[in-house]
Amino acid sequence: EVHLLESGGGLVQPGGSLRLSCAASGFPFSSHAMSWVRQAPGKGLEWVSGVTGGGGDSFYTDSVKGRFTISRDNSKYTLFLQMNSLRADDTALYYCAKDLGAFAFDLWGQGTMVTVSS
Amino acid sequence: EIVLTQSPATLSLSPGERATLSCRASQSVSTYLAWYQQKPGQAPRLLIYDASSRATGIPARFSGSGSGTAFTLTISSLEPEDFAVYYCQQRSNWPRRYSFGQGTKLEIK
Hints:
The complex is a heterodimer of chains A (118) and B (109). Chain A has 118 residues and is mainly beta. Helices cover 0% and strands 52% of the residues of chain A. Chain A has strands at residues 3-7, 10-12, 18-25, 34-39, 45-51, 58-60, 68-73, 78-83, 92-99, 105-108, 112-116. Chain A is globular. Chain B is an all-beta fold. Helices cover 0% and strands 54% of the residues of chain B. Classes of the chains: A mainly beta (118), B mainly beta (109).
């Protein structure tokens, strides 16, 4: 069964760090670009970061550039998001999403909640 | 940065009616546009990609059209389970970025 399962969210103080993980199964992980998409409480969807299938290229929305780092371990079918210098406006449910290869995301996890608050 | 604007913000219709949702891009995205459905407490679900291709398992009552800067998602006859929030999404190539519209809430009238 194709599946994505995020973990690593939690409550962190402003300026702190978290590392999110996304475990994939049921599809050839290294053949697909992957992304992180977040959704603040009661708000819409915001793309955060993406990485190519081989991991050689990564992309970020401007608001997280220099603070977040996306990576992947294809041998372990796992996607990561290292989040540093967290701010209150980073508070959101973070989804990992599989790129269909047609500029769209055809598989989503259930999300992991990140709350940045003192 | 390409901005997607969805209209209307809220659409109130009854089951059996036809729904037409709009998404406009601030510059051409060719046909690189997708539509998603999101219900409360659930992850988004891909409905349409490449502007008009239905994703696997999506009922035929969902259809997409458009190219360039103007796109439409049509639900031909609303079922009770179709009431949800719908988002459009695009990907630009240089720099490589994705963006979503702000969403249209389809509610029962």
